[in-house]
Amino acid sequence: MLALPLAGVFALTGCFSSSEEEQNSAESADTDARVSLAMLQPPRSGLSPLSDDAFKLSRWSTAETLISLDADATAQPGLATEWTQDGTDPSLWRFTIREDVTFHDGTELTAEVAMNALQAAIDASPQPRILDGVELDLSVEGNDLLVRTAEEDPLVPQRLSSPQLSILAEAAYEGGQVVDPVGHGTGPFELISVDGTSAATLDRYEDYWGEPALASGIDVDFVPDGTARAAALRTGEADVVEAIPVGQAGQIDEDLIYEVPMPRTNTLYLNNEEGPFEDPEVRAAAREAIDRAALIEGVYEGRADIAEGLLGPALPWAQDFRGSQSYQDTLEGRAEPAQVDGVEISLGTFTDRAELPEVAVLLEQQLEEAGFVVTQDVREYQYIEADAVDGQFDAFILSRATVLDSGDPAAYMYSDFACEGSFNLSQFCDDDVDAALQNASEQYPAEGREEAIMAAEAEILAQDAAIPLLHERVIQGESSRTSGAEQDPRERLLITAETMLGQED
């Protein structure tokens, strides 16, 4: 398979660069054409922006945030044009709201509307992950939104870039905890309708505050079956396809597929609170039983990277810290593996990512060779997530994005491994880990934050709270007539205003 390079800079909604080649392509675009999109997972929460469904709204360019991120996770203008941190009170941030922005229902964006949208996220139960451990107090002064944190927080701008903090029109929140995104975004595409968990329809929004979309709309189909998604690309039924399974890639014209290194780690979460893995020596036995290289060759056909930690090669600075003496000293504190014989464990995973059931099969074989007795439970993600979060499994295999929310892995680590983390599949709580995560959260970008994050990773791995298996690469499909779709490692962008279909000759 041809591995194509990533674009050096991600397009920012409403702030596009242009070249002569891009302008010529735009002139040849079929502006009446609609992009057909086959997506991996159906909505799990009615497309609520307060859930993971927010990333669908972001990938369709229908809901936008105050802040955008560039390829280096540096904050850039979005619905806020500028921001400052108070020089005498570092807990206070001021965001100037962009003028002349209308929502898809025709109402205007104001600082007060933005405040109310963020307040809905703060008041939600559960809160969006990006707000884990964070207290925000909001107020308005003219056209500025003032955000005050209980403690100094270096990542306030990056937090406000999370798709789960998208700004929707006031009418979207009239249902209380049920937030309706249909017709209430600000992006170049308006969400017109949603057909349950099967399809969604979006049209170009003609009054968009930035450059209008080149395509007239997006027709979305939710296709959890990987073989069906691959077939949709081969037959031309879909213009853009998410996550083509590795096993299907060889049957597709190599010019139609893009291999994208992802900040996504395939991880085995172990239940630290109850069951066999409450014992750290039994957790260590599971760690030692796993052959990562065999998983990569047997399931991913070599198109993945062995996980030496929670963070992979998509974050190149992570490896730089793993050789430090302090990092290695922390790992020396790991428990010694127990001898296991007939220890029964339940292993869960989901079918939405086609490789995971295959990983489960090989992992079961490896664990049973070490003396475990494994019972598998494999379902669609929407039917197994709640049980996983509630700790119903001894072990759970998850494909986990490590910089999904803020562009910074500290938020992911807090969500998954802090005592109060909202996505703590391992049911894990450790004072040393909490202290390391707290220290990482207090550091400013480029001022020691990366080193502190890696110190937290070492503490987590030392406890075998979870076992990182491999770092994934996603295979994205695009038809020959498609251009301008984003190959975004963070899975925030996909169809943008620049995405277009060529005119027929």
UniProtKB/TrEMBL annotation:
Coiled-coil zones: none
GO molecular function: peptide transmembrane transporter activity
UniProt-listed Pfam families: SBP_bac_5
Gene Ontology cellular component terms for the protein in this record: ATP-binding cassette (ABC) transporter complex; periplasmic space
Alphabetical list of SUPFAM superfamilies matching this protein: Periplasmic binding protein-like II
Annotated Solute-binding protein family domain residues: 75-422
Membrane-spanning ranges: none
InterPro entries linked to this entry: Peptide/Ni-bd, SBP_5, SBP_5_dom
Annotated GO biological process: peptide transport
Protein name: Peptide/nickel transport system substrate-binding protein
